[in-house]
Amino acid sequence: MLRHDWALAEIAALFAQPLPELLFQAQAVHRQHFDPLEIQASTLLSIKTGACPEDCQYCAQASRYQTGLEREKLLNVEEVVEAARVARAQGASRFCMGAAWRSPHERDMPVVLEMVRQVKALGMETCMTLGMLSASQADALAAAGLDYYNHNLDTSPEFYEKIISTRRYADRLDTLTHVRNAGVKVCAGGIMGMGEVREDRVSLLQQLANLPQHPESVPINRLVPVPGTPLAEAPPIDELEFVRTIAVARLLMPKSWVRLSAGRESMSDSLQLLCFMAGANSLFLGCKLLTTPNAAVDRDQALLQRTGMRWAKVAVDSQPEPLYYDAMAVSRQSVRTVELGQDV
Ligand code: SAM
Ligand code: DTB
Ligand code: SF4
Fold first, then answer.
1. Using CA atoms, how far apart are residues 316 and 341, in angstroms rounded to an integer?
2. Mean of the pLDDT values across residues 293-304?
């Protein structure tokens, strides 16, 4: 049964267990709802880069930090569709488009709506992360056929103001409400390793799990330290604490895709496998995240082959061409169709 009434003490008790116990529980729950051999792959594209007015201390794209990033205007629809085609050929089932905006300007909405329509027409799932949304913007994205909207809570309500001052935690929650009400699937998670303590990780997971409906997708990012940002020198989170966080996210949100998100480039294959065994079953595929490098596609393909795992194939409405790129010679029969939109 899915719960939405987790107390902080209960979550803290899950975290505090011996790691082998916690991993065993997380795996048991994972196997009730998912094929543990399948990993869902999303590819990211920055459709508008840099010059962001916000002050998120981790971010390469905030204009107030000297990160040396080259800013780029909103891409045109053709460039985005071409990138989506490449991602599909590499095995990605979802294409995520991110913009360095506080919130989308009305002037840009027709362009992003067209991006959604055309990427969807390739037979891929679509996701966007454009900052805060009004209810009417969320409705417009839903009408264009957007499958997911990513908007992270990033950290606990208590730690949030140490990381971002240009908007409030409540603003983030309001956007998630607008997305949910519009009927778009919610992708919401956070970043580990920003100097927060375990209580903050407990509190962030409580916020996510106690939403009226669990986010269908929960990205767990490990901070990518970006030179020039205030968090450039943040000490990295302990690896096993990171694994614990994934395991507890899996226990609290059993039917959600838990994504091992930013930070994989600097993780060993063994650590990534441990994260999968703790219940992570999704990742970003492609050599770049938004502005920073990601693990190489060849390395990810090899990781799946070495571990005997495979890409999850996702059912989408229109599928004009085969979605699955058979790079690792996985037989057709072994590609199980995963139905999304679980009843949470
Ligand atoms: N501007 C929009 C917003 O902030 O909602 C969308 C893009 S923003 C880059 C998306 C998310 O990426 C952030 O909420 C944060 O969780 C994550 N992120 C950004 N920079 C990161 C970094 N250096 N390391 C890990 N995660 C990061
Ligand atoms: C999420 O949780 N992680 C992605 C996606 N949602 C948009 C972004 C990671 C960004 C990492 C830093 C960068 O490349 O700029
Ligand atoms: Fe802007 Fe998003 Fe980066 Fe914050 S995380 S500075 S809102 S691009």
1. 11
2. 90
Pocket test residue of 49, 54, 103 for ligand 3, highest count of atoms within 8 A of CB: 54
Looking at residue 314, its pLDDT comes to 65
User: Which parts of 294-335 are beta strand (E)?
Assistant: 310-311, 313-314
Torsion 272-257-219-84 (CA) sign? positive
What distance in angstroms lies between residue 289's CA and the mean position of ligand 2's atoms?
Answer: 6
Ligand 3 contact via 262 beta carbon (within 6 Å): no
Q: Which tokens sit at 156?
A: 């606990």
Tens of pLDDT, residues 86-107 = 888 877 889 999 999 999 999 9
Rounded to the nearest angstrom, the distance between the alpha carbon of 95 and the centre of ligand 2 is 13
At 65, which helix (H) or strand (E)?
Answer: none
SS3 56: coil
In this structure, the chain runs to a length of 344
User: How far is ligand 2, taken at its centre, from the CA of residue 262, in Å?
Assistant: 6
In the predicted structure, residue 7 carries a pLDDT above the cut 80: yes
Q: How far is CA 342 from CA 34, 40, 142, 216, in A?
A: 11, 15, 18, 8
Q: pLDDT band for position 126 (50/70/90)? A: very high
Distance of CA 127 to the CA centre of its chain: 10
pLDDT at 76 over 90: yes
Q: Which residues of 59-98 are buried (b: 16+ CB within 10 A; e: fewer)?
A: bbbbeebebebeeeebbebeebbebbeebbebbbbbbbbb
> What's this model's pTM, rounded to 2 decimal places?
0.88
Coil, helix or strand at residue 20: helix
